Amino acid sequence: MEVNDPNNNTAPNSGSNAPVGSNNHGKNKKPRFNFTWVYIVIAIALGYLFFAGGDLDQNGTSKSVTYTVFKQYVEQGYANKIVANKDDGTVKMFVKPEHIRDVFQQGVTQTGKQPFVQAEFPSADKLDEFVTSQQELGNFKGELSYKRSNDGFMQIFWNLFPLLFIIVVWMLIMRRMGSGGGLSGMGSIFNVGRSRAQLVEKGGENESKVTFKDVAGQASAKQEVQEIVEFLKNPKKFTDLGGKIPKGALLVGPPGTGKTLLAKAVAGEADVPFFSMSGSDFVEMFVGVGASRVRDLFRQAKEKAPCIIFIDEIDAVGRARARNAMMGGNDERESTLNQLLTEMDGFGTNSGVIIMAATNRADILDKALLRAGRFDRQIHVDLPDLNERKAVFKVHLKPLKVDASLDVDLLARQTPGFSGADIANVCNEAALIAARHGKQAVTKEDFLSAVDRIVGGLEKKTKVMTEEEKRTIALHEAGHATISWNLQYANPLIKVTIVPRGSALGAAWYLPEERQITTREQMLDEMCATLGGRAAEELFTGHISSGAMNDLERVTKQAYGMIAYMGMSEALPNLCYYDNSEYSWQRPYSEATAELIDKEVKKMIAEQYERAKQLLLEKREGHNALADLLVEREVIYAEDVENIFGKRPWTSRTEELLTKQEEEDNPDTPDNPDSPDNSSFNTTAL
Ligand code: ADP
Ligand code: ZN
After folding, report:
1. Mean pLDDT in residue range 242-265
2. What is the pTM (predicted TM-score) of this model?
């Protein structure tokens, strides 16, 4: 049983959505050459050479003799033809048929037609001189000819053979080992050092024109990248004034918020080629491969300039280099990173290649990457707020056949904490659900079940429960509902169910306020509501159950966050012990402080638990009525709760924002410089 607070745990499936286009494997539809045949041909060729033994032109008996004996034979006029090989310093004398018996003591039938004697000659000059003199004397009528060494080639070949053999075996083994990322066979062996960047360009095979129109919301991010578009379109305007074109921009934000989409849109707007690669593509098990892929990527990009290089998940290579030697560090990753830095420094500022990279954690990146002249611009791409979600919905609803009565506002309101990718997912899922039910158009119900499904997993109506279990769950969920309804700062309730879904047995769904900052009172009210489930169990069943584990985990984490990171307890005011370094084994505080933190956490949770119990006792009739209704109907909505407890006297911030929006209905979200940076707040606020 869990309180569903989508603020904390609705990043469902984000990231599992393969970003369009950034997946460059498995899309290669070209028929692949089967390399097995190459191996077979090589093997046969080697075997043939091996058994033929090299001397392919030898079809007669031969005899090795000394140079002196060779000279005697020539002087006696036996030579038919003399062939010298300067490479290995040997000379062959083919014997005249009538003298074969004199030389070999055998007949032509035994020796073959062209037997020869072979000798080593002292030097080419001497041999030349000798042969010329014999020609003058009439002992030798033929010509002296020279020939490249076939044997020499064979010797080289045989020297190299073991090496070749090892290479072939190695290739076979590497191929077996799965070759990293999809490419198979020799391709991956000979191309390990090649970048695997996917290229999107005009007329290219995966041409896709994404423009800013396809990116909903993200007004400020768009505004910032607009500048890059200008640079790419008209670099002269900037360089004429002596300005330098930026080399890189870092898109920072949670997965699925449209970073890849934005980078693509920049390329699309500027009408330049777009290289897309994931940081993890650089990292392979071979040492040095990453660095050479980086080199290759930049080389390709320079050829296509002006263009954009997009590196997704740059943290895979760009993590801060290990400071302590104890951890050993990852040499391969570091050398890849170093190569990246070198390349970024290496190419001229005005070469027209702009690198965009995406990460969801800028704080773990190596400082060197963020230095001026590298990724000196950081563009924040946050989770969409209410109005942005509406815009994202509008983009993704376009291709769907939706029911005319569908209210986009409602959808946007029901999907707090969803990223753009999640919303795309909801739309798709809704269409599938509608299709499964044989509908003509996608309706509101389909969207809502898609949302439920994405947040909570599949409904499990088949889970067997006893009446008593059901009652306990109802009491628990009613506890959450009662408390959140009656506390000013708790999130407004949407619905409560006791239908099991995913691993949860029941759930209370809230509409989290889309706040820029959260106050202590708000956090405490939420904590109280989260503890309401267990408090109700204890009060009204007399037992406590395992069903509250999720609630307790959340509460504990939140309390630690409030006390150790946000300085929100009386005993430890204004202290933040947050440490964002990746490997830190030491707590940045003393043993005594650790004890104090633990004590404060216990105190805070105990206080809120007490408060929850008090409130439940106060509202016990209402709570019991709610639990009964839940057992009866399994799902109840905010209206039902309102019927029991009356209207909440407080208006929620979300309602306020919505009405304000309707009044203005201004498409440009005004930039609010005072609002604190949302994303960094999220990371610290557990
Ligand atoms: P990221 O790179 O930030 O992880 P992507 O750019 O790959 O996210 O987004 C994944 C998909 O989510 C996109 O292809 C698009 O369909 C959808 N999406 C995300 N953000 C938006 C947005 N602002 N507007 C429209 N669609 C979006
Ligand atoms: Zn609960």
Report:
1. 86
2. 0.60
CATH code of 315's domain: 3.40.50.300
Q: Looking at 136-145, 176-185, 629-638, which range is the least confident one?
A: 176-185
CATH number at 112 reads 3.40.1690.20
Q: Give Cβ neighbours of residue 458 (< 8 Å, ≥ 6 apart).
A: 501, 502
Protein residue closest via CA to atom 5 of ligand 1: 258
Pocket test for ligand 1, best of 14, 211, 257, 396 (most atoms within 8 A of CB): 257
What percent of the chain is predicted at pLDDT more than 90?
A: 20
Q: Distance of CA 143 to CAs 24, 64, 89, 140, 450, Å? A: 65, 21, 18, 8, 92
Check whether 17 has a pLDDT greater than 70.
no
CATH code at position 411: 1.10.8.60
Say what the alpha-carbon torsion angle 531, 535, 541, 546 is, to the nearest 10 degrees.
40
Same domain, 436 and 472: no
pLDDT the model gives residue 582: 56
**Residue of 477, 513, 514, 526 marked catalytic:** 477
**Domain range for 403:** 386-455
**If we measure between CA atoms, which residue out of 263, 332, 337 comes closest to residue 294?**
337
Atom of ligand 1 nearest to the CA of 388: 23
Q: Of 315, 350, 380, at which residue does a domain stop?
A: 380
Q: Is 610 a catalytic residue?
A: no
Instruction: Summarize the confidence of residues 528-532 as an average pLDDT.
Output: 95
Q: In the prediction, which pLDDT does 678 show? A: 32
Q: Which amino acid is residue 656, in one-letter code?
A: E
Please identify, by atom number, the ligand 1 atom nearest to the C-alpha of residue 218: 23
- Categorize the per-residue pLDDT at 593 as very low, low, confident or very high, splitting at 50, 70 and 90: very high
pLDDT digits (tens, 9 = 90+) for 165-218: 888 888 877 665 544 444 444 444 556 666 667 777 766 666 667 888 888 888
325 found inside a domain? yes
* Same-domain status, 449 and 553: no
Task: Specify which residues 277 forms β-bridges with.
Answer: 311
DSSP string, 535-587: HHHHHHHS---GGGHHHHHHHHHHHHIIIIIS-BSSSSBT-------SS--S-
Determine, yes or no, domain membership for 660: no
Is the same domain home to 376 and 396? no
Ligand located closest to 534 CA? 2
Query: Measured in angstroms, how far is the CA atom of residue 544 from the centroid of ligand 1?
Result: 43
